[in-house]
Structures are given as C-alpha cells and as structure tokens.
Amino acid sequence: MKIRPLHDRVLVKRIEEDERSSGGIIIPDTAKEKPMQGKVMAAGSGARSEEGKLTPLDVKRGDKILFGKWSGTEVTLDGDELLIMKESDIMGIIE
What we know:
Layout: E1 9-14, E2 37-43, E3 47-48, E4 54-55, E5 64-67, E6 73-77, E7 80-86, E8 90-94
Antiparallel strand pairs: 1-2, 1-7, 2-5, 3-4, 5-8, 6-7
C-alpha cells in the first residue's frame, strides 16, 4: 500500500534506539520510551496561505528529524508502524 500525505503533513518512521544503556544494561521493552527521532518517508506538497499561495515544506523524504514525544498519529502500513504528523510538530532536522 502506498500513501501520500496531504498539505503540510509528513509520514515518519521512528528510528529505534539502542537496547542497551551507556553502562551496558539491557533495557526491557516495558521500560523503553518511544524514540523521538525518525526518518521522513513521504511529505505533502505544502500548506496553503489565506491568499491561496502554496508554501512548500522545509522537510523532504529521507531527512532525519526530531519530534515531540506525543506528536502525530500512529498508523500501520504493510506491517510497518509509522506516524503521520503536521510539519509544525517537527522540532528540527538532524544533520
């Protein structure tokens, strides 16, 4: 199944963090927090202003991003757990 986000929405796949702490302790699944980093899988065409002008998004497919812990809506596509969120939920692009 393919999906194309509309307007200023972005499709994001979470980047899983390491299962060990810096001290070498293995963290169980129940104690893990959801990662706040992800990779942009698809992006919409942009937001429309009140005048009707299209404002393109600052992110593009392949960008590694940082977003809020509770941002977006979780969806499952082809067995992958993804997030659909507005560009305004993205805090920054990781370079």
